[in-house]
Queue: 2 jobs
Job 1
Amino acid sequence: MTEADLDRVLAIADIVHPAYPEERSVFEERLALYPAGCRLAERDGIAIGYGVMHPGRLGAPPPLDTPLGALPADANCLYLHDIALLPESRGSGLGAAVLEHAHALAARQGWGWLALTSTPGARSYWDRAGFTPFEAGDPALAAKLASYGGGMSYMTAPVRAR
């Protein structure tokens, strides 16, 4: 993904996540801070999905539509900020490919965990992908989840050994 791709990324986000809008500046910042975690999927030159991930701290996801400011110096996980696939591209293996990229990236950094905030509609996918609800939450985590709306789940999965 490059900055030139952000209009296409935002168009996909508008389709896939209409209830969870984020400003362009959020995607610009994630791309600038951690380009290795930003991927665009294309078919015949048309964008069909994307993945945005960055270093994070377990139990401390960023609130929705909020800049990070900086990456945590004491990161211990790879936070999957967003993986979005257009409906017609689902079932194509792209989700699995993005997860493989995430596991490999986290393993190279020496992090033992992937983390994400799941929307209610995606929860069953993340369950099948090996993620489980994070049980060590605190009031700050609950407040961040509330910034997304009801039914959100903060989930983690151990990084698969390479």
Job 2
Amino acid sequence: MSLMLGAMTPAISGNITQLKAIILADFRRTETNIGYHAGRLTQGYKLLLLKRLPEPKDFELHGNTMRSGGKFGLPGSTDAEDAGRGSVHDSILGQRGQDGYRDFQELVLDFTAVSGSDRLVKILPTTRHDSAMSPSDQYPMGGGFLQWDLKKPGLPFLFAAEFMSNGNVRTKDHTYQINSGNFLKDYPEREKLQKFLRQV
């Protein structure tokens, strides 16, 4: 899928989280927050922002990023073992029923926004999923940030920023140098980028 920086994407599905899980100063901390193995973001990633809140029909609850794959317990060492883990979605649905599930979705939507650090985002890593890697290695338990799954066909996002392997971040109109190693230069750039991502 070809995406244009600064433009809206076609509908995209899959896991989403919140902007506050993205740590501008450190790819490793972002990987830990999301629940990616160390090195997954080394080659960079695209950051997509939702411009409107989803409706309950658009998503399933997957708990938070401590629930790798939206399932209880630690990820398995094989795909077959991982498939046996209980689903957060199924558990909530079983406890609350369809109406209660929807009410819970409405409730948790109140903790999100279309701007600020609580806005909903999607990361598209340059390094894609590796089917040869075990779930336990590839998707370790994350840092406890919101995790929902957008159902197909998904929703359009704004392709807001591209985080490069060299530590720079490109937006439509600017390139931010946020990880040069010089804190006095990097911090103001991080601050500008954070403001942009919260407001765009």
